[in-house]
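Re-running the complex after MR caught last week's input typo. The corrected sequence lines follow. Everything else is unchanged.
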Amino acid sequence: MKISCSKTALMNGINIVSKAVSTKSTMPNLQCILIEASPSEIRLIANDIELGIETVIEGTVTEAGKIALDAKLLSDIVRKLPDSEVLIETNANYQANIRCERSKFNIPGTSGEDFNYLPEIEKNRYISLSQFTLKEVIRQTIFSISDQENTKIMTGELFEVTGNTLKVVSLDGHRISVRKVELKESYEDMKVIVPGKTLNDISKILTGGIEDEILIYVTDKHILFEYENTKVVSRLLDGEFYKIDHMLSNDYETKFTINKKEFLDCIDRASLFIKENDKKPIVMNIENSNIYLRIDSSLGSMNEEIEIKKEGQDLKIGFNPKFLMDALRVIDDDEIDIYMINAKSPCFIRNADDTYVYLILPVNMAA
Amino acid sequence: MKISCSKTALMNGINIVSKAVSTKSTMPNLQCILIEASPSEIRLIANDIELGIETVIEGTVTEAGKIALDAKLLSDIVRKLPDSEVLIETNANYQANIRCERSKFNIPGTSGEDFNYLPEIEKNRYISLSQFTLKEVIRQTIFSISDQENTKIMTGELFEVTGNTLKVVSLDGHRISVRKVELKESYEDMKVIVPGKTLNDISKILTGGIEDEILIYVTDKHILFEYENTKVVSRLLDGEFYKIDHMLSNDYETKFTINKKEFLDCIDRASLFIKENDKKPIVMNIENSNIYLRIDSSLGSMNEEIEIKKEGQDLKIGFNPKFLMDALRVIDDDEIDIYMINAKSPCFIRNADDTYVYLILPVNMAA
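Corrected-run output:
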């Protein structure tokens, strides 16, 4: 194999596929990047079995071929190269010779014969949306997945398409996040559970904006994200997702509208007095046109009031401040509506057209 | 005590004095900030015995008094306050009531009666220089102090004034860094050893530029840095600093001029192949008008050549790449001169007027 490309193109490609390099496994192929040069293109591939990524980079192929190189070493070398043309040439012993200006490196590689290519994905069922929208719905829901491997399904997110609506749901037993997005056209229904790690990784490598489309294909076992020169394939999580519709009731006894930033900052201040491990809730009194927060702990006390527009009953209710802050941080609206029933029922933060719903369970105030 | 000030002024003051708050001690006073309000000014003080800092912040004193508050809690609270006026009021039980807009905090404090004030420093011997210059000389020497507490003197830096010259020296047994600065006027001779931690801390809190002066006073035991509204007092290290003049020979057998960035980047790339703990040097061959670097390790190999302007003998010599990179990173010149004698004698990176000299011992290439 003999190829040349710019340092920038190579570095970008390495950064993209590196998300699918295993950091835990000791199987050499899972820690490698395969460089595959066909007469027409240079392809980088990494695959840790759960997640596989391939991307095509711009460059010139003088001699087709392939080689698998240690991802970390390759990445470290390329990062430290001058911003210039890079030449990679392999010999019969799978040594790679990397040259850039007057730097010459030799590093050992392997043939790539037993490399795990990305699985072939049948392209029947798909949707198309903008890269920006995909990143946004992930950001606005990913915080409420569970990190407990014993509730495997909760470590992923439901992606459900009905007609022209994409609904993304995550939940961890204490809260549920739902985001709905209107797609440009209608698609065949789909319902899959995507691993949270895959969604975090795809979020990090997407650089595109509102105008840049991404295609998402699904099969029974896999999901494929395809955009520009890059393909990301992930296994799906097996099983049925939790039924949540009956939990998202529209009934309420108390509804109030509050300035999001004031509310978030106030809870953030109050949380100073809550130590990591004690389960003390932050208690709020919703009374007339104010919400009163008061917290007392061994460290000190705080109280603060915020003006609200209220409908319905007064209420005293307690929450884990982290759960409230997580949801408030990802909402872009300046003013938000919060719905409550009583001190033991979940609260809902939702907007008028239901494009987002955050359900949060209260904490028993006697705790 | 009853005072008010802007959140910004209070936060800046807390950030400055926090450098002298102990993170290790369990003595409450060492973890506190003393707020002392006299009729004319508001003063914040922290002192961990090695280092003491006080700063005066702008604000209004309604009732003079003082209180010692936990530094971390105070800092966390103030950071999270809205950007507005802050009121602090204490009661007879040394509870502090902190108010800002609609937030009200109560935190416990102590009287501050047994607080460690900064020691009185006799202001006989001093120098004046710009804050920018002080930060620069610290940055350009601090990397070669020792972190070994058993060679206490090496954990500090020599500050030596002779006439109108300030000389700053640090060394760790493998290398010596010397920076000389011309002061605007001549001062009485002084020679003190300043703890490295103090210099790191003062570097971080100085925000001033070339035009902003700082005064440095010394006594037998202490050094006082005084600028704007802030005083920083540190203990000095006891003992005699190492005599280094006889080591800084001007003799050489090989001298070359090299582009600093090319040299630094090349060593940086080569260091990829040196694992943290093996003592393998990076070997360079200085031959005619080139320097050849070659490194071979179990990870792979690299070689590279850089053009130089050479006088004197060819030479093959090995170095710990970190020591070379540390020095090269802090030198601002584009082209640098390096002087060598033989493979077992130190090399010197120095400029024509000797405002900097970096001595680095070579590594035995058989190692």
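None of the earlier attempt is carried over here. The radius of gyration of chain A is 25 Å. Residues 318 and 364 of chain A are 7 Å apart (CA to CA).
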